[in-house]
User: What shape does this take?
Amino acid sequence: MSAMDDLMAYQRDTEALGQVAGRLEWDQETMMPRGAAEQRGEEIGALEGILHARRTDPRIGDWLEKAEPEDEVDEAYLRHIRRSFERQTKIPAALAVELARVTSVAQGIWAEARAANDVEQFLPTLEKVVALKREQAAHLADGGDLYDALIDDYEEGATAESLGAMFDRMRPRLVALRAAVMGAAHQPAPLRGHFPAEAQMRLARKLASGFGYDWACGRLDLSVHPFSSGSGTDTRITTRVVEGDPFNCFYSTIHETGHACYEQGVDADYLLTPLGGGVSMGVHESQSRIYENQLGRSRPFTGWLYAQMTDTFGDLGLGDAEAFHGAVNRVHAGFIRTEADEVHYNLHIMLRFALERELIGGTLEVRDLEEAWNTRFAQDFGVAVDQPAHGMLQDVHWSVGLFGYFPTYALGNVYAGCLNKALRAAVPGMDEALARGDATPATEWLRENLQRHGGLYRPRDTVRRACGFEPDEGPLLDYLEAKFSEIYGL
Amino acid sequence: MSAMDDLMAYQRDTEALGQVAGRLEWDQETMMPRGAAEQRGEEIGALEGILHARRTDPRIGDWLEKAEPEDEVDEAYLRHIRRSFERQTKIPAALAVELARVTSVAQGIWAEARAANDVEQFLPTLEKVVALKREQAAHLADGGDLYDALIDDYEEGATAESLGAMFDRMRPRLVALRAAVMGAAHQPAPLRGHFPAEAQMRLARKLASGFGYDWACGRLDLSVHPFSSGSGTDTRITTRVVEGDPFNCFYSTIHETGHACYEQGVDADYLLTPLGGGVSMGVHESQSRIYENQLGRSRPFTGWLYAQMTDTFGDLGLGDAEAFHGAVNRVHAGFIRTEADEVHYNLHIMLRFALERELIGGTLEVRDLEEAWNTRFAQDFGVAVDQPAHGMLQDVHWSVGLFGYFPTYALGNVYAGCLNKALRAAVPGMDEALARGDATPATEWLRENLQRHGGLYRPRDTVRRACGFEPDEGPLLDYLEAKFSEIYGL
Assistant: This one.
């Protein structure tokens, strides 16, 4: 056995154990009896301990030194393993333990503070988390930018500078679009009514099938927060059902189907290797977003969905498919990121990006965060935050130390915009297929041009290769302006 | 940290990882998408590799040498850990690998041979498995009896000699009872009809509740073969539904509820320790059997079930509760162990015990097994085996190397007989409660007197302490003779 073989055999078991951890998380959110929470914590803790020990095993360093790659796939394997090993070993064990301890407690304190609408209650904890993340970033950054070092964990190669410049270009156009849409004379009516859970779930399954989700290698269940989980031949999705709001179930399902199709679409040869899943958070989000928005909220597809829903639920009280398209794409004021429409969403992200960049950079103190949030929110959204639970306390991310994660959501939207442009140019008859509820031509194109590569190329290269051009914010903004101008008669 | 503390902390993680493996098995039988089988094999393999390495880690030997127990609980911890460590380390790694390899292939070959009804197809493989199990037993036995060494894995302290003597005492009484029952003039009619799956499952949940199953720490799902899984606060059960035979679902559910209540009833202090589950296969089976048979098939309980079923399904076409009791307890000729009634069941086990004892002892050749099986079957069951799939090819056990496992089923029945005698003497009003569908007084007594101890005492001592007398076959045989004499008017 060569060093390369040894390393890959070792890595394969680690990947398999990582999948096991994923199964446990899926079970916890879908199936686990409520009384098992504490015991499950110990079970996951034991498994994470094994995984951490494996990922920092000094033998990896030896193998990496001796391993001789034979092709670009081997090189990509080594690149991923080296990257993970170096990140893990740069962080002192004591700091890793302290971070795990503090963020685990912080999540509970954050939840209580949000429930109590009390920022003060959360600040000392958030200060601790920020201090520890800055310390962690300093170990990772090798003298470089602290925030870049954190972003790199979720999006290899992305930097605060390039993201910041892109967001600066996006912001004025989005703010202007938002203001125009909200001030438009024509405002689509929202969908109202009661939509029984079982019928919603039947249609949700049909939606997932329509996007090419492979049921032999996955399943759909309910959870409080929708998610997708697992890689390769076991890629499961969840959704939720609100009987007054079927779009919640349907578009969560389509979103998670996008994530899952990406995982299912990776070349089977990469199963249980470092290339065997989506390459980054941003590219992952590009798949979920293009499925959800550019495809799932397109006029031909909502036309088909309108017919499905009237068949299932009877008259929807909206008049026609055109009004239904408006209801699906309705832009509404709101404080909460997770409830935001396509026009507002990226403004939420840019706000968080700007603030966390400053927090990690040391130019914004935690105690000044609320004011900074509220000021920026008023600028971009045209309304004042009415309570902390609708402001800086709304997201769990910071309490658990996820700094550098938020921008990948907006990057996913930007990539989705680029991929949609390329897809439309490459696949004729897309709209006709969507009008039949069939998005599989899109999945096939995405699989062939992006999904199958898994982690073979770097994130941005993965998207560039699929698009045939350098990705930037242009196609997304053009798409948003065209779509919402038309719907709102701007 | 003392050696005792180090050892227990290490063991706790191992126990937690063992629970994780259990969750994966549960998932595989209930939830896993069918396309994930191969990937799952790798995931389980990686986890089993970790578990095996942990269980044979040389540090355990050092800790065991230095650990100083402070009380009987510590002593029991050390006893279990030492026992497991010694068993694992006595077997050469190459033999363990070869056994795993051969039995994994053998299971498939057995399944094909059974489907083809072809003994010859299976014999070379079974010969290999027997030879490897004899080799394994020789490593474990330290010059003692080979078969004892294998039994000891499932039932600490049980020996072929004591089991053989007990089975020799049971056999004539069971053979006589079987003949008398089958020759009786009065034969109860079987239940016939169509019983919708959903209604069966609703009643199955009610049954589990009636026996005190804690739903906050468990759940009920469907699987091909019913099983219970997990320990402590996450103890799940499965059942199956055959729409023409609701007793299949109901009594499988009660049986698995017995296993699960045992796990749920273990003292919470023992969670994720070597004492945190049922102490042995035999004692485990005593819980499932007393729930299923002595309680669940008792006249007061079937009276309640009759009312429930007529409420749910309408007229059952049997006439009255008495006829229903007869249908539940109907004794029927049959070749298959898993379909056997209370009168036939132990005869199936004794046959397998006698044959596998000789196979492992070297006094019966694999090529002579079929004839030996068929001869013995004709003697005890009064009919000739009509085809190998109904004879020596019916069970999976031998193909996967489970020699020494069968006798624990009969031992469980014997223990259930003893516990039932003690329970009836100790708990007044048992029949009145059962007549209301309430078996929780039995669960409470069993929890207090047996279940809560987990692995604290040795298996036989566990039962003896609960009963207040030395367990033997007497109470079971008395119970069977009385019950079936009455039902069949002997």
